[in-house]
């Protein structure tokens, strides 16, 4: 990738984007990038003299938005689970699939069997698909190893992917994703392992940016979730939560008490949970791919979140079992059609709010002076097209971490 430094002209700023410039709708914008940072944004007819001589990049009248942020993925894993998709089509529920030996534990088996290079080789093409959609930052969770050596393997691959592809990767330790077979009937003992051995070791190796838990009837209880949060807090790590996906466990309110970056899924989120998230500044992450794949009927409380002013992010939740999604733009469409988000809400959901859900709001999700250059030039007349098309690769040029992808 080559440097994006220079004067970018021929741009139309997408209305509603987090872009630190106010121009008449008919005006064409310009962006100055120097040493990988945004130094100026404004009317192309008013570029300061000190920047006028910089190398030029002609945007060709492209629509420009901040780089997209995929704030919830399980991108690194072994194998795939198309057979479970067929089981659900034949009538099996998510819980029935899990109890039949499928679900998360089947991915655990495949992930444990694969070495680090094999996991990298499987994950890299998935990442390439997401990057082609304009993604400039991505979260990658562990949680398919469920043992120290295998969780480490997943997180190391996530770090390698970020370095190899020049994309910001935030790693999330999800050791409390499911109960591994060797701990059947001993969830308390496993949580002790997660808190006292796995998390401290991985954090000491610099592999953990945040900590997540799957708090649900088929996973971990509220009390077990709090133990993980306490251990994360002791290590100075922010927390997130798979919350209220299948039932109202009260997880969102608990996560908010610990200042969680986000609560994700939230189809069964209560009014109390919404109030707690609002008070804590916790982002609600909507995952329409999982809702669609599971053929769920319980919609997230979008209007209540909107009324409360809780920021709503949108993500792929890429995983092999319930959301094998490789397009964040398609998730924008689903968020609009299934959850009734407006186009500006969906765009904010994959930019500014998604960045906040990862603690990256100072570097991603917006175009502002002083921030790293992360933006996308789109072959689109207006932002509605980003959520309108199915499967169209609309990104013309992607600037990621100050370099042209």
Question: Any overview of this molecule?
Answer:
- The radius of gyration is 21 Å and the shape is globular.
- Strand 10, helix 8 and strand 11 form a beta-alpha-beta unit.
- The chain has helices spanning 82-89, 94-99, 104-113, 116-132, 148-165, 187-204, 222-234, 251-257, 271-280, 288-293, 302-308, 328-339, 343-349, 352-357, 384-388; strands spanning 2-3, 6-13, 29-34, 37-43, 56-66, 68-70, 135-141, 168-176, 210-213, 240-243, 262-265, 283-286, 312-314, 375-378, 395-400, 403-404.
- The N and C termini lie close together (5 Å).
- It has an eight-stranded mixed sheet with strand order 1-16-15-14-5-2-3-4, with no helix packed on it.
- It contains 15 helices and 16 strands.
- The model has no long low-confidence stretch (mean pLDDT 96).
- The protein is of the alpha/beta class and 405 residues long.
- Please give the largest β-sheet: 8 strands, mixed
Structural class: alpha/beta
What percent of the residues sit in helical stretches (DSSP H or I)?
25-40%
Our Rg estimate from Cα atoms comes to: 21 Å
